[in-house]
Design brief:
Blueprint lengths: L1 H15 L9 E5 L2 E4 L2 E5 L12 H14 L7 H5 L2 H14 L3 E5 L2 H12 L5 E5 L4 H10 L2 E5 L4 H11 L6 E6 L11 H10 L3 E5 L14 H4 L8 E5 L9 E5 L1 H10 L1 H4 L6 H16 L1 H18 L13 E7 L1 H13 L2 E2 L2 E2 L9 E6 L6 H18 L7
Parallel strand pairs: 3-12, 5-6, 5-7, 7-8, 8-9
Antiparallel strand pairs: 1-2, 2-3, 4-10, 9-10, 11-14, 13-14
This protein binds pyridoxal-5'-phosphate (PLP).
The site of pyridoxal-5'-phosphate has 14 residues, from helix 5.
């Protein structure tokens, strides 16, 4: 058919630009490791920061809920898909984030779509960090609001945009990640809030990578930076440090109630299975009773950052477990990633449009599951891969 031919031609063009994407089949997982192509590799690409995805207590809680409620919720939350577990999880998430209420979505991607399209629309203005996640960008576009970006982490430029444009619009929102997913740096929430306050804008923080990682007990970026929950709308995901799947928003009761009536990504989709809610609930409990996981994650993140700062590429800034190795061109990112793979380390290359043009990188992330020896092994492999790919001058 003509569309198959068209797809083939388009795919060839994507490959020519070194942007073809393929999934690697993972055969097994163990703490800090994955098996691919019959080999166990050190896993430097997981967002399961606390190792909760393999925790026996989460598995048990999910299995119990599975036995009781079955594999599917059967309908959307508003129709008949809300179980006591969904409600308990939302209450626990609200408490965890210090907010009045919370709402569960099937994924973090959908949470962003649902929240932003419900809060902003034609006649409104949304201003976002230039490096915001694709789900935030999609949400801003889909909302129908006017959409502007400010330079990465630049609260002063944000303020300037608000000063110039605010008057023309009804409602205005500032949208940022908490911990940036591909860079590992943290949004300057104090400066952002100050600008937002000055121009009567609301702030939405997507804390996919800060939840379970930063702040007291892993409460997230807002807590870490001393921002009160009532001042921002916090989006998060259960899919990363919390070891499961599903997105959520934590906000005031009126905002959450409005979302139930307005967020299409909540209304028009089947509820996550109760087993997903049970795993999420158990993750929050484990976070409380096993604080040593968070402590280990932080130790590893600190050690890994310290280690990488000795290599001749962009010194890792930011905090937390995400440390990008920026190499510039897509081809170089893929070469470095392939060399790491050969050396027994799994860390994929990240290319446009996930990151801006010319800023391709190998994204590394450490978890609580890594032992100090793992990090030494990873560092040795990275140094060797660098030698092998033979290029040391690196774009910052
Ligand atoms: C992963 C991620 C999401 C999406 O979350 P999922 O639960 O995986 O859909 C949203 N925002 C950011 C910043 C992310 O890194």
């Amino acid at each position: 058919m003509w569309f198959d031919e068209a797809a083939r031609a388009e795919l060839e063009e994507i490959a020519r630009l070194d942007l073809r994407r393929v999934c690697r089949r993972v055969e097994a997982v163990a703490p800090g490791r994955i098996r691919v192509d019959g080999r166990w590799l050190l896993h430097l690409a997981s967002n399961d920061y606390l190792g909760l995805a393999q925790h026996p207590r989460l598995k048990e809680a999910a299995a119990e809920a599975l036995a009781r409620f079955g594999t599917g919720a059967g309908s959307a939350r508003l129709i008949g898909g809300t179980s006591s577990l969904h409600e308990a999880l939302e209450e626990a998430l609200a408490r965890f984030k210090g907010a009045e209420a919370a709402l569960l979505f099937s994924t973090g991607y959908q949470a962003n779509l649902g929240v932003i399209t419900a809060l902003a629309g034609p006649g409104d203005l949304v201003v976002g960090d230039r490096l915001n996640h694709a789900s935030l960008i999609d949400a801003c576009r889909l909302s129908g609001a006017a959409f502007r970006v400010y330079p990465h982490l630049d609260a002063a430029r944000l303020r300037e945009i608000l000063r110039v444009r605010r008057g023309k619009y009804r409602r205005t929102w500032v949208v940022t990640e908490g911990v940036f997913s591909m860079d590992g740096d943290v949004a300057p929430l104090a400066g952002i809030l100050e600008a937002a306050r000055a121009f009567e804008a609301g702030v939405v923080v997507d804390d996919a990578h800060g939840t379970g990682v930063l702040g007291a007990g892993g409460r997230g970026t807002a807590d870490h930076l001393g921002v009160r929950a009532g001042e921002v709308i916090q989006v998060g995901t259960l899919s990363k440090a919390l070891g499961g799947v599903g997105g959520f928003v934590a906000a005031s009761r009126p905002v959450v109630e409005l979302l139930k009536s307005k967020a299409r990504a909540f209304i028009y989709t089947t509820a996550p299975p109760a087993a997903v809610a049970a795993a999420g609930l158990e993750a929050l409990r484990v976070l409380e009773v096993e604080p040593e996981r968070l402590a280990r994650l932080r130790q590893n993140a600190l050690a890994w950052r310290g280690r990488l700062s000795g290599l001749p590429f962009a010194a890792p800034f930011g905090e937390g477990p995400i440390v990008p190795v920026r190499v510039g061109e897509s081809r170089r990112a893929m070469e470095l990633s392939d060399a790491l793979f050969e050396a027994g380390v799994y860390a994929p290359g990240i290319r446009p449009p996930t990151v801006p043009e010319g800023e391709a990188r190998v994204r590394t992330s450490v978890t609580a599951s890594h032992a100090p020896a793992d990090l030494e092994e990873a560092f040795a492999a990275l140094s060797a891969a660098f030698e092998k790919t033979g290029r040391n001058e690196i774009a910052v």
